[in-house]
Write a structure and sequence with these properties.
By secondary structure, this protein is of the alpha/beta class. The protein is built from 20 helices and eight strands. The chain folds into two domains: 89 residues; 277 residues, TIM Barrel (Alpha-Beta Barrel). Bound molecules: zinc ion.
Length: 422
């Protein structure tokens, strides 16, 4: 691979503004409620938390519960790291520590953890740190942030996408009551239920939200079927009478709402974001296969679907989905911290398959600004590897490779989300 061209790509990407195409970053206001952070806060907030659970069977809070000092916390963390320092989720932390907190070595050890922890505490106490990392170091144009129902965001840093799993729970009285209270309406039948959902989405859209998001693949199959309105209305009426709803009927109600939401997106121009692929410990992996969305996607050709996480491990399938469905955008959110190797393989194939304007190259999917930085470094490294390699071997021109980097990190997202051009 041409080393010089790879370096050129890295330099170009470092100079670019990036649109973060999927964010859970805490608000600036929230960040400083628990600042300064420590080494243990950052590594527990990162995806390595899932490895802590996987290795110990306990949450980070549990493993640190009996610790009175950072020395004791380090012993706990070290025991996990010794078993799992190979995984990408750990290396994400190292990249972050090296780039932002002056860790000089390539591993965290008994000799360097203390100094690192002190530097983290000192830097994260600075009231300009949050802004410095997001705006100046990462050069983020905006972060397209997951917004739970009824919550808000800081427009200086974020663009909203309204999380919609609660819509699938409207057969339950708690979810219904919350929505009724928020909107000041009463939900008395299926019609007033979907009306309320439409009103909620409209309110958020008026405040600048660009889409809605479902992450139901964490707990159920992505496969949904069209359900006739009278069927859904009968199920909902039974729920309103507080009757027991059997699981197959719950699924029918959810499927009806999923189709309703896809139609709503087509009517309003909102984007439909859907979590596909990677879940968490004990998840039923086949439920997350993006190909299960085909009937929904085919039934809503004028809805723009934004499929997350490269559908990993179904990334090749998702490449073909993107190739055959012009209403599907492919989003690399979360991917580089899951696997850099899988990310490279995915990008190598997608760049051959899918028109470039539908490739979204970066979504941080983390909760602290520092972790965005680490993820972005990993993303740029993978993109540079793949693009330089394709110039060498796959007859891609250098100019197109440079254009692709800019499109995947910035231009595509600006056009897709309708962001104002600067
Ligand atoms: Zn996410």
């Amino acid at each position: 691979m041409s080393k010089a061209f790879r370096e050129q790509l890295l330099a170009e990407m470092a100079a670019l503004k990036t649109v973060d195409c999927h964010s859970h970053t805490c608000l600036r206001n929230e960040y400083y409620q628990s600042a300064p952070k420590s080494l243990f806060d950052l590594s527990s907030a990162a995806y390595f938390e899932r490895e802590i659970v996987s290795v110990t069977g306990q949450s980070p809070q549990d493993i640190y519960a009996d610790c009175d000092s950072d020395e004791q916390r380090w012993q706990q963390l070290k025991a996990v790291v010794d078993k799992a320092r190979n995984v990408s989720y750990w290396r994400h932390n190292l990249v972050t520590f090296q780039g932002l907190f002056d860790l000089e070595e390539d591993e965290l050890t008994d000799d360097n953890w203390y100094g690192l922890n002190e530097r983290i505490k000192q830097k994260t106490a600075d009231s300009n740190w949050y802004h410095h990392v997001t705006a100046e170091v990462c050069k983020l144009r905006t972060q397209v942030k997951n917004i739970p129902w009824f919550e808000d965001w800081e427009p200086e840093y974020f663009t909203g996408v309204l999380r919609m799993e609660s819509a699938l729970e409207l057969w339950l009285v708690e979810a219904r009551t919350q929505l009724e209270e928020y909107l000041g309406c009463s939900i008395v039948d299926l019609g007033s239920c979907t009306q309320a959902l439409g009103d909620l989405a409209e309110q958020y859209q008026a405040r600048g939200a660009v889409g809605i998001k479902l992450a139901h693949a964490y707990r159920r199959t992505l496969s949904s079927e069209p359900v006739e309105e009278p069927t859904a209305a009968r199920i909902f009426a039974a729920a309103l009478r507080r009757e027991e709803i059997p699981p197959p009927q719950v699924k029918q109600f959810e499927d009806y709402i999923i189709y309703f939401l896809a139609g709503l997106c087509s009517d309003t121009g909102l984007i439909f974001d859907i979590h596909t692929g990677v879940q968490t410990n004990w998840a039923h992996i086949p439920d997350s296969d993006p190909l299960l969305l085909l009937p929904l996607i085919h039934a809503h050709k004028s809805t723009r679907f934004n499929l997350y996480h490269a559908g990993y491990p179904y990334s090749r399938e998702m490449g073909m989905l993107g190739k055959h469905c012009p209403n599907v955008w492919l989003n690399m959110a979360w991917m580089y911290v899951i696997t850099m190797e899988g990310s490279r393989q995915t990008l190598r194939e997608w760049i051959d398959l899918v028109p470039a304007y539908r490739l979204l190259g970066f979504g941080s999917d983390v909760c602290y600004p520092e972790l965005i930085y680490g993820h972005l470094q990993m993303a740029r490294s993978c993109l540079a590897d793949v693009l330089a390699e394709k110039v060498d071997r796959d007859f891609l021109s250098q100019q197109v490779a440079l254009d692709l980097a800019k499109m995947m990190l910035h231009d595509n997202a600006v056009e897709f989300y309708g962001l104002e051009t600067e």
